[in-house]
Design brief:
The chain is mainly alpha-helical.
């Protein structure tokens, strides 16, 4: 048995996400510029909003630039509706990744991580999982990896859902605002997209503790 099986399982998850980026990342960057993404989404007519959300969800398996898609939704639908669509698409992507890995079940998790490492992972996500999930949503690659690990260690669904929403909503609205406002102040949007998930999760965590 490897000494650090959970780290190996994490590395395998990251490799599964990064390999498509290494192979097709440049090609996708060429196709999915802001104008190219906008053109692709609008080509679906009245279903453009759904196409944008599905494109965000495909980030689980394809190297699509999620932030550009969110900006394109803001450019097309404005800050509020575009932000809502971007947040919902990112949230659904996180839920699908979590559900898929949780569906594998404990036997698969034990096979991947081993008993001791799985228990350490469960302890880590039970204590700090909310912070990890909320903060990871603004980082590249990490959102999918953290969502998969949360499902693998069977992080509490209620806590995961709350933390995921705390991460997705600020990021979705921040990048939709960047698209809608024509990149006038991307620095402020980026700072807010980092700080707001932490603040929202702090509030949600206190509320969940009181409910418990």
């Amino acid at each position: 048995m490897p000494r650090y099986p959970l780290l190996i399982a994490s590395a395998l998850i990251l490799a599964g996400i990064l390999v498509p980026f290494a192979i097709w990342g440049d090609r996708f960057d060429e196709v999915f510029s802001l104008s190219g993404t906008q053109a692709w989404i609008t080509s679906h007519g009245s279903w453009a909003w759904l196409a944008g959300m599905l494109l965000l969800m495909s980030d689980l398996i394809l190297p699509v630039p999620a932030t550009l898609i969110m900006s394109a939704l803001g450019l097309l639908y404005g800050v509020w509706l575009g932000g809502l669509l971007a947040s919902a698409g990112s949230f659904l992507a996180g839920m699908v990744a979590y559900a898929a890995c949780r569906w594998l079940g404990r036997p698969a998790a034990l096979w991947l991580a081993g008993q001791q490492s799985l228990q350490r992972g469960e302890c880590l996500f039970s204590q700090h999982g909310g912070w990890l999930v909320a903060l990871s949503r603004w980082m590249p690659v990490l959102p999918e990896a953290i969502a998969c690990l949360a499902g693998l260690v069977r992080m509490d669904l209620r806590t995961y859902t709350a933390a995921l929403a705390c991460g997705c909503v600020p990021v979705g609205f921040a990048f939709a605002a960047i698209g809608a406002l024509g990149n006038r102040n991307p620095g402020l949007a980026m700072v807010l997209s980092v700080l707001l998930p932490l603040l929202l999760w702090w509030v949600a965590r206190r509320w969940l503790q009181r409910q418990a």
